[in-house]
Design a protein that fits this description.
It is found in: Chromosome, Centromere, Kinetochore; Cytoplasm, Cytoskeleton, Spindle; Endoplasmic reticulum membrane. By secondary structure, the protein is mainly alpha-helical. The chain has 28 helices and ten strands. The protein starts with a helix and ends with a helix.
Length: 743
């Protein structure tokens, strides 16, 4: 009613212009008969005043065109008015499709009016506003209807998406139109059709699809215990959930597909089985099933979710179960077929099916992923949990497949240890059983496990398809690349701070390098056929690992040397030892150095291989002795008391130095290494000769020099010996004579 009033009111303003337009039309009729007369006149008296006539004629022609335009505009205004009136009537009768079509008609009329150049009517703005108001009004009515047709009962939004809250979601679908609406035919069709005509269907379906994914489809995929329940009442169909104890952490793809299929069947039957007339201008795809529209909107997200949360978990983790996977592929095909029949899916093989069919490559990817994750966990675990390995330690391994057995080797079950028996190489040369042996030492248990993982993975590779075999081989190489990159950075601080860890890391690297020498060799029959140029080898990684171990250990050695020199720097240069305070400082410095060496000797005990231990301790003790020799040899004046005190300080080093060599936990076994100290300490004899000089008289020194052939000459240069003589003895003729003999 008030719509009409409003329109009438606007039209009243226009009646006068309508009236004048009709008058104009009458005048135009009159004018045109005048034109005929004129024409005759012109023809009769052609020469008279022709210019005037032409001007008058074109002016009249313009007048006529203007009036025709006004007439057609008024006609369009009338069309708009009729459309709006008919729309109002249809809306009251709930004939939604008709109402929507009338609105669209009004819209296209208005568009045409607005497109007339140079003809701006104030009223067009008012009509545009009116149209917007009516469209919103209609969409509001349709929205109300739609909410009655599909009712969501959802848990409060602030709740977490736990199983409990998901259980409370329900979807109610209206099945029978309520009595007063029967005039309008099936309400679902007309409501959705009207949305389509107004171009709003997409938005409505999209939000419906999002709710469907969030509250029904995704929970069914994520929670194995959720079951969809359906209940049909007289005028409504209810979709809800119940929960049952799941037997597994992940449901099988078959179960998930069945649940999802049920949901789509319900939607298809009660809501979406409506062919849609598209708005007139989209004639190209006139009838698109609603199901397909919805399918287009949610399929991609749904299939991603199915792949990530369902198919991925169903990929087997060892090759023996691959055959059973055919079932999964079949049920994926059936699931897609069912969805196509209900028109949710239109294309052929979707990503979902491609994923399932590509199981071999996923198997390899999953296996490689598992291997790398396991390896990474081992690398980031503590270094200091160690195991002892001895020359006859070996990696426990199942029996290797027979070289001739070809591709289809079932992973063997019998286990035998790969022993360091006499290794027979291709050219049949016999090597001693210790050629490829590792010395006894301690390595991190995580590294031993890492090696077992590498062997196991290569073994699995030999029993796999070619593609998988190649991938697994490279993932074993990746394990070692990863170790090389991860361990030094991940454990960086501890490797710098703790000498024991640096030693273990050194052993770990040497242990890995040792195994990499032969690792590819054991699997060569199977791997070389597949990998180009028979590149089934790890030998290229060996130098890198040796370097990694060495660099870390040498860095630790530099730290220890630095501390020794730091401690000795507080010994006041070993000068003026007759001063009590100076003597105490020097004595304390020497005690501290011995204490440090003892501590390091203890933490490396039973960790480093004995030969490495002795070299390392020898180098550190050598650093201390060498520094002491340099300082004493540089003194310019040494009194008799100084000399005695320096001698006693040196004696402490010579007596207690060797005791820091304790490579083995059993003390009686260490004697041998303590006696061999001169072998490992380069400056040992130099130090002993210095002690002799501190106690000797001039003649004894000359004898020790023995014309540059004696033991003293082997350790010191002539200049150094002369300097010591000048420091120790006063300037006498005897001293001058002795100095003359040192050359």
């Amino acid at each position: 009613g008030e719509v009409c009033n409003m329109i009438n009111k606007k039209y009243n303003e226009f009646l006068p212009s309508m009236q004048s337009a009709e008058d104009l039309v009458a005048q135009v009729d009159g004018l045109s008969s005048n034109i005929d007369l004129l024409k005759a006149g012109i023809e009769n008296e052609v020469q008279r005043d022709l210019n005037v006539a032409v001007a008058e004629f074109s002016e009249l022609k313009q007048q006529l065109e203007r009036d025709t335009l006004v007439l057609s505009v008024l006609k369009k205004l009338q069309e708009f008015d009729t459309a709006i009136k008919e729309y109002s009537t249809a809306l009251l009768e709930k004939k939604y499709v008709a109402a929507a079509q009338q609105l669209e008609k009004a819209r296209s009329t208005l568009k045409m009016l607005e497109s007339r150049r140079g003809f701006e009517l104030k009223i067009l703005k008012a009509l545009g506003t009116e149209l917007t108001v009516q469209t919103q009004n209609m969409l509001y009515h349709l929205g109300e209807e739609w909410q009655k047709l599909a009712v969501w009962r959802l848990p409060p939004s602030q709740e977490s998406s736990s199983l409990e809250s998901v259980m409370r979601s329900e979807l109610h679908l209206r099945t029978v139109p309520s009595k007063e609406e029967e005039i309008a035919g099936p309400p679902v069709a007309s409501v959705l059709q009207a949305f389509a005509v107004l171009g709003e269907l997409h938005t409505k379906l999209k939000s419906f699809g999002q709710l469907l994914l969030k509250y029904i489809l995704k929970p069914l995929i994520s929670y194995p215990s959720l079951q969809p329940c359906t209940e049909e009442q007289s005028d409504v169909f209810i979709l809800s959930f119940k929960s049952k104890e799941p037997n597994l952490d992940h449901s099988s793809p078959m179960e998930v597909f069945d649940k999802i299929k049920l949901v789509f069947e319900v939607l298809h039957k009660y809501l979406l089985n409506v062919p849609l007339e598209q708005p007139a201008e989209d004639k190209k795809d006139c009838r698109v099933p609603l199901a397909e529209l919805l399918g287009d909107m949610i399929w991609e997200e749904l299939s991603d979710c199915l792949i990530q949360n369902c198919l991925v978990n169903s990929i087997p983790s060892n090759s023996s179960k691959l055959e059973q996977y055919i079932e999964v592929i079949k049920s994926t095909e059936e699931f897609e077929k069912a969805l196509k029949n209900m028109q949710f899916l239109k294309g052929d093989t979707t990503d979902l099916l491609k994923y399932a069919r590509n199981v071999n490559s996923h198997f390899a990817n999953k296996k490689c992923q598992d291997v790398i994750v396991a390896a990474r966990n081992l690398m980031t675990s503590e270094i200091h949990n160690t195991v002892k390995i001895t020359p006859d330690s070996c990696v426990a391994l199942p029996r290797l497949p027979d070289p001739g057995a070809g591709n289809h080797v079932k992973t063997p079950t019998t286990s035998r240890l790969l022993h360091n028996d006499i290794v027979t190489l291709e050219n049949e040369t016999k090597l001693s059983q210790y050629t490829f042996c590792l010395p006894t030492c301690r390595i991190s248990s995580s590294v031993e496990k890492l090696m077992e993982l590498a062997y196991q993975t290569l073994l699995e590779a030999t029993a796999s398809t070619d593609q998988c075999c190649i991938q697994l081989f490279y993932s074993v190489r990746n394990i070692f690349q990863l170790f090389y990159d991860v361990v030094p950075t991940y454990h960086k601080e501890n490797l710098q701070k703790l000498p024991q860890l640096a030693a273990i890391h050194h052993n770990n690297c040497m242990y890995i390098a040792h195994h990499l020498l032969t690792l590819g060799h054991q699997f060569r029959y199977r791997l070389t056929n597949i990998l180009c140029d028979g590149a089934a080898t790890f030998v290229d990684l060996v130098p890198g690992f040796r370097r990694l171990g060495m660099e870390c250990f040498l860095a630790q050695m530099r730290v220890q040397k630095g501390e020794i020199l730091e401690r000795l720097s507080s010994a006041r240069n070993f000068s003026n030892m007759d001063d009590e305070e100076n003597y105490c400082a020097a004595n304390k410095a020497i005690r501290q150095v011995l204490h440090q060496l003892k501590r390091v000797g203890k933490v490396w005990q039973d960790v480093l291989p004995v030969n490495v231990y002795c070299k390392a301790m020898g180098t550190l003790l050598n650093t201390a002795l060498s520094e002491i020799v340099t300082r004493i040899a540089a003194l310019e004046d040494i009194s008799a008391e100084d000399a005695d005190r320096l001698y006693s300080l040196c004696r402490i080093m010579v007596e207690e130095g060797p005791q820091v060599f304790t490579p083995l936990p059993e003390d009686d076994k260490n004697k041998k290494y303590q006696e061999e100290v001169p072998v490992y300490v380069q400056k040992w004899m130099t130090f002993k000769e210095l002690m002799i000089i501190l106690q000797a008289n001039l003649q004894e020194i000359v004898d020790q020099w023995a014309d540059g052939k004696g033991p003293l000459a082997a350790e010191f240069s002539a200049a150094e010996v002369k300097s010591l003589i000048r420091a120790l003895f006063q300037n006498t003729e005897r001293r001058a004579a002795a100095l003359a003999k040192i050359k």
